[in-house]
Amino acid sequence: MTVVHIRRAVLLAVLVLAAAVAGLVAGRAVPPAEVWEVLRGGGDPTARHVVVNLRLPRTLVALVAGASLGLAGTVLQSALRNPLAGPEVTGVTPGAVLGAVAATGLGLAGWESPAAVVTAACLGGFAGAGLLWLLAGREKGDPAQTAVHGVLVSAVLSGLTAMVLLVAPGELGSVVQWLVGSTEGRVWEHWHLLWPWAVLWSAAAGVLAAPLTLLRCGDDQAAAAGLDTGRARAAALVCAVALTAGAVSAVGALGFVGLLVPHLAFALFGADLRAALPGAALLGAVVVGGADAAAQWLSRVAARALEMERLSIPVGALTTCVGAALLLIVARRRREE
């Protein structure tokens, strides 16, 4: 890392902390002063329960899920040399959602058995990525064609998810959060399941930083440098799917995070994955953590305006709306270039 990269990483770390604080104080039940009192070891039992058992795990899950999606997207785009290869449009996220929803609908998984959800999401993610790999065939090297096939695969998997919901409508309430993406109701059980998984596969992504940097230069150059491109790409895809599946099993399908965060990471940290990967993790945490705080704040404002006792805007709705706008900006800039 250069001095500039270190300064940017420090700034992003500060923003992660700011997003965490914003997430802790954004709820309506306990005002910021009482949150601070609880964090200092005081506060009444109700405030302590809300902050310690509800807000803190929710904030941590949002940050780590965002970091995982940022890493997954960066690994995926580097391995495929495709700037459009986010988990959302390569069948990975829709496959993970389908796996989680199908397992829940069949009674094989659920919030009471989160490990089974992760397993089902992983299997679904691998199935989605494998389907794209088979469908793209010899056109895998064409970013535009791969993106088109990815959208097709994602649409098919989303359709299958809808069919599962029709078959098992009684499970709709518990699985809709995977479709939209939500941090509502995340507790310590989700955190204890997510963080070891994220640490394990983040470390794997770090190990792959040098091979991924070579892959971004092209297969011929990477092979000339002594890299087994097939094995390196396969390992990277496994890592990307695992990171995505872990995040999806915890918070559902957060739109555009894995697609757009890598673009920001490469813009801030350059093409060297040894700097871009940590940057993508920090950016993903800032994006999802900040979006979660904003969603809580908007929920309070909307509930007051509509005179409702309670309203919860899912964080996935926010990332999808903002992500779509940013994607248009990125697409226009690339067309102008």
Task: Briefly note the structural class of the backbone.
Answer: mainly alpha
**What percentage of the residues does DSSP assign to strands (E)?**
under 5%
**Count of helical stretches:** 14
Distance between the termini: 28 Å
Unreliable stretches, pLDDT < 50, 5 or more residues?
Answer: none
Radius of gyration: 20 Å
Please give the share of residues in helix.
Answer: over 70%
Q: What coarse outline follows from CA principal-axis ratios?
A: globular
The strand count comes to 0
* Helix-strand string: HHHHHHHHHHHHHH
Largest sheet: none
Q: Please tell me the overall pLDDT.
A: 84
Family: Belongs to the binding-protein-dependent transport system permease family. FecCD subfamily.
Keywords: Cell membrane, Membrane, Transmembrane, Transmembrane helix, Transport
Pfam families: FecCD
Membrane topology: Multi-pass membrane protein
How would you explain this protein's 3D organization?
The chain has 337 residues and is mainly α. The protein has 14 helices and no strands. α8 runs antiparallel to α11. The radius of gyration is 20 Å and the shape is globular.
Topology diagram in text:
Elements: H1 3-25, H2 32-39, H3 45-80, H4 92-105, H5 114-136, H6 143-167, H7 172-180, H8 188-207, H9 209-216, H10 219-224, H11 229-251, H12 257-269, H13 273-305, H14 315-336
Helix pairs in contact: 1-3, 1-13, 2-3, 3-8, 3-9, 3-11, 3-12, 3-13, 4-5, 4-6, 4-7, 4-11, 5-6, 5-11, 8-11, 12-13, 13-14
